[in-house]
Amino acid sequence: xxxxxxxxxxxxxxxxxxxxxxxxxxxxxxxxxxxxxxxxxxxxxxxxxxxxxxxxxxxxxxxxxxxxxxxxxxxxxxxxxxxxxxxxxxxxxxxxxxxxxxxxxxxxxxxxxxxxxxxxxxxxxxxxxxxxxxxxxxxxxxxxxxxxxxxxxxxxxxxxxxxxxxxxxxxxxxxxxxxxxxxxxxxxxxx
Length: 191
Fold this sequence. Notes:
The chain has 191 residues and is an all-beta fold. It is built from no helices and 17 strands. The protein has strands at residues 18-22, 27-32, 38-41, 54-58, 62-66, 71-75, 81-85, 89-91, 96-98, 101-106, 110-115, 119-126, 129-137, 142-147, 163-168, 172-177, 183-188. It has a four-stranded antiparallel β-sheet, with no helix packed on it. Strands 10-11-12-13 form a four-stranded antiparallel β-sheet, with no helix packed on it. Residues 3-12 have low confidence and may be disordered.
């Protein structure tokens, strides 16, 4: 992770400053000090009491952290939590169950999270804001996700991604269109 684009300005360093180490029950942050040594530190807005599924620099000088319980958007310069998003609780006659985030992937501006029970949520990362753009339910629980490549013609701005790939525990790979999360095709793996 970088300390923020403000640190990369005049005479600044464009290299990563932090290394995240995540465990089953917590997350630790290591920082490179002035002697080029790693030492444990904290990022105030980061949830260190949870496992981190994904952590990345995001557009707008922000840090994105995804844990099994929530998505956190942190200002990279001030290290303050500016926005969070939690999956809704599923209510049934027997009990209420919290959805858990099981997988996540992001580009600088877009986040795709898989939830327990085959739920999929596509989120836009704006400055200090997480905006849910679409939701879908897949036939089985999702094991892994990836946002397809973004296209860019010479001399033009980078376009938004057009598709995502999903792996599921029932041994299928599914390609979905973005931003609507409509299934384009699904291919079974194995026998």
